[in-house]
């Protein structure tokens, strides 16, 4: 089957895409509007990590997770884009999920308390709860003497 053609229009570094020129121009206008009304960067400290969320020049959310305890200027663990079809609250929630996954250890006894401290939105809370359940299952299988491959398969449900 043929791949549908995508029309691309550009103004400066902002690119709009769509199936027709009208849709591509609408996408471009939406991204320019996003940039004109974008909030300033959001910076917070959570789980001992510095989380930075901001809108980039391509009308997409980007983020960095920095561990200030590393070396002189901190170590950047994650630096990536989140896409443009999000609100700032949704972007912050996703970055909080990534930070929580970075900080979680099997020794943490109160998973629900940990999830509450992450302060994610409900979708990311579900993802974090599922991820922790998988991590606990995997760790238990490793303790039971399974190989990493066997533990991964069984924890995943294959």
From TrEMBL:
Full protein name: Uncharacterized protein
Organism of origin: Bradyrhizobium septentrionale
């Amino acid at each position: 089957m043929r791949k549908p053609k995508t029309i691309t229009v550009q103004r400066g570094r902002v690119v709009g895409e769509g199936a027709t020129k009208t849709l591509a121009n609408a996408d471009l206008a939406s991204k320019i509007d996003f940039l004109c009304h974008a909030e300033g960067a959001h910076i917070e400290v959570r789980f001992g990590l510095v989380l930075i969320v901001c809108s980039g020049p391509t009308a997409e959310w980007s983020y960095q997770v920095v561990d200030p305890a590393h070396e002189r200027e901190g170590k950047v663990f994650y630096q990536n884009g989140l896409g443009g079809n999000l609100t700032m609250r949704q972007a912050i929630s996703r970055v909080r999920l990534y930070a929580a996954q970075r900080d979680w250890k099997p020794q943490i006894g109160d998973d629900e308390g940990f999830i509450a401290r992450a302060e994610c939105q409900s979708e990311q809370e579900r993802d974090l709860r599922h991820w922790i359940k998988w991590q606990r299952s995997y760790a238990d299988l490793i303790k039971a003497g399974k190989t990493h491959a066997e533990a991964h398969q069984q924890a995943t449900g294959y």
